[in-house]
Design brief:
Number of helices: 14
Shape: globular
Distance between the termini: 32 Å
Structural class: mainly alpha
CATH topology: MetI-like fold
Largest sheet: none
Order of helices and strands: HHHHHHHHHHHHHH
Number of domains: 1
CATH architecture: Orthogonal Bundle
CATH superfamily: MetI-like
Helix content: over 70%
Length: 275
């Protein structure tokens, strides 16, 4: 049957285009104003720059100590992803393959942690971290991200692993493979779609996170990009021209990573939800 272009299709397209443009408006304001002088931002926010101030990016790069902040953000994001993928996948695998009430209870506890507001445990967390010597430490922050990200990570892996036939593992065991060997040689390679999804979602969260690093990292040399950008806003002055340029610099690496990996997002999530 031939699909006809109807008035309803046209209306739906117009609605989709309108919604898309609404989502792009904030990007327009950030990018266009990042090329303006401070005075022009205050007097003519919506228009395109009369003169493109590329010096904003040079100054922001220097004042942010961008390379150092970028290195800190990259180290935290990569290390957090590694521990979340390793521990999350192994925990989900054991919870799926161990069929008893205790496994179900543990899984539900992990799910419940996803709805606990961070603000409700913020003060006890910092007190505990201080007593354990985890403050002012990138690795301490990574351990906290492991705790906060374990719920969603295990949830995604749990749904995906259910669709992996147990017969594959039984065949490997018959061939003499150990329990760890079965997971790393048989199961984990099959988790590639959901692993990529987990890494993308956690990277978006960890790279852009401000509140937890601001509580944990007090040393200026340990600042992440969001923390470094925040210091363009003082008590009496707000350097919008540099702050917006710094914001663009901070999202470029994440956009490159996201667009290069986005094809795996829907595939991984839908596979896990269906299975």
């Amino acid at each position: 049957m031939e699909n006809k272009y109807t008035g309803k299709t046209f209306i739906l397209e117009m609605v989709a285009i309108t919604i898309g443009l609404l989502f792009l408006i904030p990007f327009y304001y950030v990018i266009s104003n990042s090329f303006k002088s401070f005075a022009e931002i205050l007097t003519n926010t919506s228009a395109l720059p009369s003169v493109f101030e590329f010096q904003n990016y040079v100054n922001a790069f220097k004042q942010l100590h961008y390379l150092q902040a970028f290195t800190n953000s990259l180290l935290i994001t990569v290390a957090s992803n590694v521990v979340l993928v390793v521990f999350g996948s192994m925990a989900a695998y054991m919870l799926v393959r161990t069929k008893n009430k205790l496994s179900n209870i543990i899984f539900m506890i992990f799910i419940a942690t996803m709805v606990i507001p961070f603000q409700s445990i913020m003060i006890p967390l910092i007190k505990t971290a201080s007593s354990l010597g985890l403050l002012n430490s990138l690795w301490g922050l990574v351990m906290m991200y492991l705790g906060f990200g374990a719920g969603i990570t295990i949830f995604l892996y749990h749904g995906f692993i259910k669709g992996i036939p147990v017969e594959l593992e039984e065949a490997a065991i018959i061939d003499g493979c150990s329990a760890l060997g079965v997971f790393w040689r048989i199961v984990f390679p099959l988790l590639k779609p959901i692993t990529v999804t987990v890494m993308i979602l956690n990277s978006l969260w960890i790279w852009n996170d401000f509140l937890l690093p601001s509580l944990v990292l007090q040393d200026p040399d340990l600042r992440t990009i969001p923390l470094a950008t925040f210091f363009f806003f003082g008590q009496y002055t707000k350097q919008w021209d540099l702050a917006l340029a710094g914001l663009v610099l901070s999202i470029i690496p994440l956009l490159i990573f996201f667009f290069s990996m986005q094809k795996h997002i829907i595939k991984g999530i839908t596979s896990g939800s269906i299975k």
